[in-house]
Design a protein that fits this description.
eight-stranded parallel sheet; single chain; about 350 residues; three-stranded antiparallel sheet; globular; 16 strands
């Protein structure tokens, strides 16, 4: 596929008997390498967060497993080497101290599928995207109890995944916020978009603590839970790049005070029309001496051409880009009387497929 060799792209087109290599930060922190061969690794993939109708993966991965298998093969055919999945607390924790073994078994099945299709998994956890599905016992917990549940969630997930070479990373939470100071909050969830909640607070009561102290305590607790069973795979946190909103803002989770147990920086960028340079300036703020991945991007507020300019402009500092795939192929979109959203997605997928050889040859 695309004529790219094994040594360059770390098994983008694997031999039948080849195995995936563990991916690690390079010794100088400038990028990723395949642990055994030392080959450079660039992440080029998709958020597989929901299907075309908006269902989360856990809404259909039991009853419609063949759909998941087909989607993974389609993402591989488009040139992806990483798939980011989003897992919900409610689906993996029956009670504060009771993991859901059925869900863990299905996750193990997904990990095997990733191995078979030679796709690395960015496993993002602790999702509460559908507010109606959040258990009352979890919603009403205080900080300490909530963090204990989150730590157990990550402990059992890491135990399930530890032995697989197909794990790219564990992303502790999608877009957490760590309030600091003395002002109390009342809602754990915010950032509603399209019926889903993508942002979570990690505390409601800073109790006078600086935001960095709260963030460090949370990251360290969850990282320690993962490391009980998995010392090999990378840990990250996918964050909102506040420097993109407020020029001059500094990283919180990727500050020196917080980031000791995070292996690379993950940021979510949606460049705006006519503001590619502004987005690139903001991205540079997160070049902190660790590998850097644009873990979410899409032509949501700009066209494909400008998104391409952002990707090309970031190649000196970024070590990966992860867009979106929602279960429909280019041909399926083309066969429909596509609306604007479908046409936009089809254009993105065409760009992704055409760009893969160029990205993965570096």
């Amino acid at each position: 596929m695309y004529g790219i060799t094994f040594a360059i792209v770390c098994l983008l087109v694997p031999a039948a008997t080849a195995e995936l290599e563990l991916i690690r930060p390079s010794e100088d922190g400038t990028g990723f390498v395949c642990a055994e061969s030392g080959a450079k690794f660039i992440a080029w993939g998709f958020n597989y967060d929901h299907d075309d109708s908006g269902r989360l993966i856990e809404d259909y991965w039991h009853q419609e497993w063949p759909t998941v298998v087909e989607d993974f093969r389609e993402m591989k055919a488009l040139g992806a080497n990483v798939v980011r999945i989003h897992l919900q607390v409610a689906k993996f924790m029956n009670a504060p101290a009771e993991p859901n073994e059925v869900a863990l078994n299905q996750l193990a099945r997904l990990v095997k599928l990733a191995e078979q299709t030679h796709l690395y998994l960015d496993i993002t956890g602790l999702g509460c995207y559908h507010k109606k599905d959040v258990p009352q016992w979890y919603e009403t917990m205080g900080e300490a109890e909530r963090w204990d549940v989150q730590a157990l969630f990550w402990e059992v997930l890491a135990k399930t995944c530890a032995k697989s070479p197909a794990i790219f990373c564990y992303d502790l939470m999608n877009e957490p916020i760590a309030p600091g100071g003395i002002e109390k909050q009342t809602e754990w969830l915010l950032g509603e978009f399209g019926g889903k909640f993508f942002v979570q607070r990690i505390t409601l009561d800073p109790a006078g603590r600086p935001a960095k102290r709260v963030a460090k305590a949370w990251v360290d607790k969850l990282a320690a839970a993962i490391r009980k069973h998995d010392s090999r795979h990378m840990i990250t946190v996918g964050v909102i790049p506040w420097a993109h909103t407020w020029p001059g803002a500094k990283p919180l989770f990727y500050s020196k005070e917080v980031a000791a147990n995070l292996d690379f920086a993950s940021v979510h960028f949606y460049p705006k029309k006519g503001e590619v340079d502004k987005a690139l300036t903001a991205l540079a703020v997160y070049d902190v001496g660790k590998p850097l991945v644009v873990e979410e991007l899409f032509p949501l507020s700009c066209g494909i051409e400008e998104l391409g300019l952002f990707i090309d402009g970031s190649r000196k500092i970024a070590d990966g880009w992860i867009g979106f795939y929602w279960g429909k192929t280019i041909d399926e979109y083309a066969a429909e009387d596509a609306d604007i959203a479908a046409a936009l997605t089809m254009g993105w997928l065409r760009y992704f497929r055409a760009k893969a050889p160029d990205i993965l040859k570096q």
